[in-house]
Amino acid sequence: MEDPREICGPIAHIYRSHLAYMAKELEAYRVGSGQFEFLFVLYHRDGVSQESLAKILAVSKATSTRAIQSLEKEGYLYRQRDENDHRAYRVYLTEKGKEMRGVILEKLNSFVDTLLSDFTPEEKTIFRLLIHKASIKLFDPGFEPPSYGRMT
């Protein structure tokens, strides 16, 4: 069997580098490390519950709350009580938050361009197909990631 670190190590390095790159690129916009991911989810699911955001991003409720409060303070989103469950909040983009979509996409594209800069067009296609195939497996019903509910 091959050493799993040969796969997991580079994936982890790419992910950490991605977060560091995005944090640096979005610092001028006062969007912190990992916070852009919350905006990115809202670009596809504006009005999602705060709890759902935490689940989608596989972060703790506390981490989600801190990120949402920070983005709210900066004017990128706002929270509103859920009409059906007054204990819950739904999260919505502001106009400023919606305007950040282009900036975030530009920065993501720049990161991916750098990441794949030494790849041939064929290698880029193969890489995209393989990385997609590998990640799809993690959505299978049989795969259970760790619970991010209450952390003690």
Automatic annotation (TrEMBL):
Alphabetical keyword list: DNA-binding, Transcription, Transcription regulation
InterPro entries: HTH_MarR-typ (IPR000835), WH-like_DNA-bd_sf (IPR036388), WH_DNA-bd_sf (IPR036390)
SUPFAM superfamilies cross-referenced by the UniProt entry: Winged helix' DNA-binding domain
A Pfam cross-reference name: MarR
Domain annotation HTH marR-type: ranges: 1-136
Top-rank taxon, per record: Archaea
Protein name: MarR family transcriptional regulator
Organism annotation: Methanosarcina baikalica
Source species taxonomy: Archaea, Methanobacteriati, Methanobacteriota, Stenosarchaea group, Methanomicrobia
